[in-house]
Fold this protein.
Amino acid sequence: MKDRPARMPLSALVLFVLAALALIPALMCFAGEGARLHPALSDPMAGLAFLVSAIALAGSGAFPLVLARLARRDGE
């Protein structure tokens, strides 16, 4: 059998990158620097929406990763 390195699906990679990008304004809002992005984000709890979005995106990115791993295992 060929030993190919496991590749991350593109959809999982995109979703993980989007989760990391959503985490940046969440941390900025929690640090009190959200007003630099937009005046509506001056409240530190405004970062909660960004944090929830980051967690949801990371969870959604895990699905294609797990499915690819299961497909690889099934093919062996």
The longest helix spans residues 47-75. The mean pLDDT is 88. Residues 28 and 43 are 11 Å apart (CA to CA).
